[in-house]
Amino acid sequence: MLPGLNILTSRVRWLTLWLLCLIANPTCAQSPSRHVIDPPQEITSLFRSHCVDCHGDGAHEGDFSLDQLIGSATASSTTEMDELARWERVEKVLINGQMPPDDAEPISTSERRSLTRWVGESITSAVQLRGPIERTTLRRLNNVEYANTMRDLLGIDMDFTSQLPSDSRSRDGFVNDPGALLVSSEHLQTYLNTARAALDKTIVSGPAPKSYHHVFTESDRVRWDQQAAFSNRLGRNEIFIANIKDDYPNEGEFLIRVKLSAELPTDIGPPILQVEVGYRPDTQILFGKLAEVEIRQESAQVLEFRGRIENFPLPVRGQEKYPGMQIKLLNIYDDGSPRQEAIKNKAPGQRWSFADEPALPHILIESIEFQSPEDPTWPPHHHRKILFESPLRDGDPASYEREVLAAFVTRAFRRPVEPTELTSFIDFHHENRDQFPSFEAAIRETLAMVLVHPSFLYLRRVDANEPQTVDDHQLASQLSYFLWSTMPDAELLAAADQHRLHEKDELLRQVDRLLADERAQQWMTRFVDQWLKLDRLANVAADEDVYPDFDPSIKADMRAETQMFFRELVNENFSAMNLIRSDFAVLNERMARHYGIASVWGREFRQVPIPNESHRGGLLTQASVLMANSTGAKSHPVLRAVWVRDRLLNDPPGSPPADVPTLDQIDPNFAELPIRKQMEIHRDSDSCRACHRGLDPWGLALENFDAVGLWHEDIDSSAELPGGIQLRGIKDLQEHLLQSYPDRFARSLVVRLTSYALGRQLDIFDRPIIEKLTATFAENDYRIKHLVRAIVQTPEFQD
Asked: Of 429, 384, 382, which Cα lies nearest the Cα of 402?
């Protein structure tokens, strides 16, 4: 350990304990109380007539009893939140028509309506009577936010999170909830190591590094075991290799320029240039991908790609068998047609050749240029951004150090630095300055301390009434991390400095500006991934016996389809009801080909009209959702049904009872039975019937879609929901959701997006704001952009 770093390590340990104490949120702890809702006699009578046989007088089918809600017993062992949550559970099953079951005392439509209305109004009244709940939420930056913030603060792009533990998810699936984002000693040590490594690259010392510059006009013909031909004309079987044997850097930024043109046949997609950097050590070929870009013009153009050399595989110096760092160019466009057979040549230098494919697009490489460092000035721009020019530097070094630290800490903390905070960092720097060989080395260590401070690693927000109102700088951070997943930019901080963000017009102007920025695409992608649990897709492998031609790489396009569909709704300000049913899809060539839709070319996703007779349109028809909720060999109606109830309606079914027998105990040949027979066996079991009655139909209606999202006409997808509602497949299911559940779906989306925006799970005491936002959402035709604007204006977001 370097001299002086014992002090730093002890401070980090103290900070860890302090942070862990602050994370605790006592707000949710409530003492038991008496009933907060007392049903009148007529309501109690309805419950006793239709519900008590199964859920009262000691009976608790489905692990639920009404005794403590409508009986004479007090709620002495139940908290206020628990009791209200139980009433909310009653409300859900009434709305869904799941209770009472068909074999219970029949309930009329008017009786069900009276019960549902009374329960809902009573819960809302009880919550409003309780008043606002004061919450202080302190959470650390999740890994994506941390990486983005380090990149934007330091001005360099490196792997900031590979050594960090993975983020945990909340019950709702989000990775920005304080209950899931705990801090361990492993986190703090990794943050410290990462800060030091990043600052070593950011703040440089010594003379300017050697410059490297190479130009290649023809592909090298290196020793290569893979079946590919070396060429300047790239189809799907050719590669261009630029081999730099000795004269390349070990670290630092580099620039690659590619001058090229293209051959673009009609009625087919454009070629896709992939740029890789790496080497061949021996039997392996190790490359890292630098970029992919679609080539949409035939005429000559120059493309530039930037990276850091140490982020890519580099050869060991001096190895003679396969020396040199290599830049590889490929055309990765593939229309799915059969590939040409490789022809093995005896001539040296070109081991393989292939017949020409003139119907496919080609890239014509004129030259590759490699330059390092990318920035010819020294010190580089990221160094000068922190150690900026100032007249104080030579004339008053102590004042210059204060000036540098004040500027950096203000940017890192995303607010003006307090004098006492600044003094502590200056003192730390002075205490340790003499133990480092240079000013640059000493200032790096002090800035590393800034980067493990709670005000950098943590976001703090307060949900409460006056006087605990977040200031403009906190609001700027909340906006930026909600919509950009990174620190506020200069314009947003300037508005905060002027104390204007609590003004409605300025707040909404900034929201619109942030949403229009390219960085806003990240929150859309991350929110839809976590809300819809698209990460499951990576864990489902298509069965090779059932789908022998399935290319696993298309799963990335499946996931992108859903992400881009949501982006389109936000960017074009379309109604969120398109998520249920839409007359357009957002597809690229590959996904259109997967679905059997013609005349869509290129890898870029765009709106594609869907004809009336098509079975596509909306989330429930997208391969990402269908495959993620399958076995990889077969569809899985129960998984799909749970997903619909949970993700779209925010009404997840309860966990199976502990005494449920395994299915092979019920029937040893269970796995070989048709899916409907399997589900009949499920429903025949007393312990499964109540749950599956209200669950299975949601998934059975999707049975025409197989495990990889392809449509099959000759499948029975009929189903019956509670209340005798008949579904005859996907169109009936979509219509039922739009006609009977628009408010439930809208409320579900409001809950998930508000939870994401606030960075915490919502609870029963958030009910008033959720109802208000849902009403506003409906008034604005369910447009997601309007919902975002409404959320940021709520007291919960601002106060």
From this structure: 429
Whole-prediction pTM: 0.87
C-alpha angle with apex 695: 690 to 696, nearest 5 degrees? Answer: 105
Secondary structure, 3-state, 530-580: HHHCHHHHHHCCCCCCCCCCCCCCHHHHHHHHHHHHHHHHHHCCCEHHHHC
Scored b (16 or more CB within 10 A) or e, 684-711 reads: eeeebebbbbbbbbbbbbbbbbbbbbbe
Helix spans in 451-553 (H): 454-457, 472-483, 490-497, 504-516, 520-532
Rounded Cα distance, 793 and 306, in Å: 40
Which tokens belong to 180?
């899931």
Q: How far apart are CA 135 and CA 797, in angstroms?
A: 12
246 vs 511 pLDDT, higher one: 511
Instruction: For strands 238-244 and 229-230, give the pairing.
Output: parallel
Helix (H) or strand (E) holding 723: none
CA–CA separation, 647 vs 558, rounded Å?
18
Query: Could you give the CA distance from residue 226 to residue 283 in angstroms, rounded to a whole number?
Result: 10
pLDDT tens-digit map of 684-718: 555 565 566 778 899 999 999 999 999 999 899 99
Q: How far apart are CA 557 and CA 587, in angstroms?
A: 9
How many other C-beta atoms can be found within 10 angstroms of the C-beta atom of residue 45?
Answer: 12
What the block records as the tokens of 648 is 């779209």
pLDDT digits (tens, 9 = 90+) for 136-181: 668 899 999 999 999 999 999 999 999 999 999 888 889 988 888 8
Distance of CA 766 to CAs 120, 758, 760, Å? 14, 11, 11
DSSP-H helix ranges across 56-135: 67-70, 80-95, 109-130
